[in-house]
Amino acid sequence: MHPCRVLFICTGNSARSILSEATLNHLGKGRFEAFSAGSQPTGRVNPYALDELASAGISCENLSSKSWDQFVGEGAPPLDMVITVCDSAANEPCPVLFGNFVRTHWGLHDPAAVKGNPIAISAAFQHAHALITYRLMALLQLPVETMTPEALKWALDGIGAISDDDDSEDVA
């Protein structure tokens, strides 16, 4: 079986989806192949996301802010899962992508939206990355290769219910 291919989508594809892509590629090397994209990509990866990944020892090579157009139509890599990471609590629109894959939503406050001094912004990225890593560790525990799409959807929805609401206001 090919590696399980996962696409993380948010609006700008500069922070949350980038952190998710790089971290899953790092933790799930060989078993998972992660990508990221945005419905309205900013065209650049947030430097705080790159700093956070580097401090965690995760490669930043080949990361870019790109449109989800690369993942639809002819020549697009086949996907097994699409995970949106936008923050519906902030009324941020979540992109919708159609195809034959399991879809779920792992809402996450946008660390790129945090204003303030560099320490507060960096702390927001650390917090977001910690939650992403926690969720991805839960994903890695799943026997995705043998799960039915229905069982996988149920498990992924459960992982997405792991919230960052507990202390997210303290970060800003």
Automatic annotation (TrEMBL):
GO biological process per UniProt: response to arsenic-containing substance
Q: Which domain of life is it from?
A: Bacteria
Record's Pfam families? LMWPc
> Has keyword Kinase?
no
**InterPro entries given for it?**
Ptyr_pPase, Ptyr_pPase_sf
Domain Phosphotyrosine protein phosphatase I, first and last residues per copy = 4-142
For the keyword Cell membrane, the answer is no
Keyword annotations for this protein, in alphabetical order, are:
Arsenical resistance
Protein name in UniProt: Arsenate reductase ArsC
Organism, per UniProt? Dyella tabacisoli
